[in-house]
Amino acid sequence: MDLANVLHMNPAKSACSYANSSILQKHLMLQSREVLEDTIKNYGTHGFPECFKLADLGCSSGPNSFLFITTIVDIVHAVCQKKNSKTPDEFQVFLNDLPNNDFNALFKMTPSFSSVLENEKGLEKIVNCFISGVAGSFYTRLFPSKSLHFVHSSTSVHWLSQVPANLLDYNKGNIYMAKSSPRCVYEAYFSQFEKDFTTFLRMRSEEVIPNGRMVLSLVGRSSADHTMKDSCYMYGLLGKSLLDMSAEGILHEEDITSFNLPFYATCTEELEAIIGSEGSFSLDRFETSEVNWDIREEDEIMESGESSGKFIAKTIRAITESMLASHFGDTFIDEIFERCALLVAEHLSRVKTDNLFNIVVSLIKK
């Protein structure tokens, strides 16, 4: 699977777009606000540059992309107001994702976002915010040397640069790490994550100025035990949908055997060890939290278990459809997620609630 050309969240015109199916990701981002505030506050202790340059890596498209920018602008202005110091004259924001990201939909939202900044935030002066798109993998260099003051990434760095090698003969019946997976599968996934995250840190170390900051939020697991339910169960239900279709002769078993998700839910101990080993950033802060799979907007009412199943299946579909369609073809996508919705509803009828584990880390460039 050529991930750089396959992996992308569903575009705006798709039946289940990421923009309309990313409430979970929005709440994961909101949970990092306290860390963002403290990080920006500490960075601005001695004042901000005239042009504050920041990047959002793995931005996708939709309102969440602009939630990050709004949050940073709000925090910077609040810090400057409290310290009675000069606010930046300009914000330069780089929105990064892989080339097949729906950048067109993102840029179409830019004028309305600029209007919000100018008319609704109640700031003392017009915010000069210049927004650019940067297409490319964040496992490569994306920006000039020492050009960024701040880097942010939310629900992205847990995606790997490639599916771990040599899984074909060992992870039969699974599309990710599972309790039935042998230890060599976990070791292959961790090895790929360790390599990728080390590369990520090394690339950013060249792009971020000394004493620059980075805040990363990623889906992880609450224990060193890689079979913990909070790290793999959601995708296990997706895998079961595929296996049920194989048992009925709709999908070929060998196609399922050869499909594995390029995703790794790390734990805090692994993350801290890689940061220390790579050595370019000092660890400023770790925070963890949990978010319900079925979290909704405040005014939205959960009607039933069936409704929850459909809602969560849409969230999974918005993330994984591009990979599934590339591997299995478009024909079966609707049925895969209809079955997934039923399995999720059945699962929630037994456990009532289930959570994702979120890790937020704040780093300082040495």
From TrEMBL:
Pfam families: Methyltransf_7. PANTHER family: S-ADENOSYL-L-METHIONINE:CARBOXYL METHYLTRANSFERASE FAMILY PROTEIN. Belongs to the methyltransferase superfamily. Type-7 methyltransferase family. The keyword Disulfide bond does not apply. One of its GO terms (biological process) is methylation. This is Jasmonate O-methyltransferase. It comes from the Eukaryota. GO terms for molecular function: metal ion binding; methyltransferase activity. It comes from Daucus carota subsp. sativus (Carrot). Keywords: Magnesium, Metal-binding, Methyltransferase, Transferase.
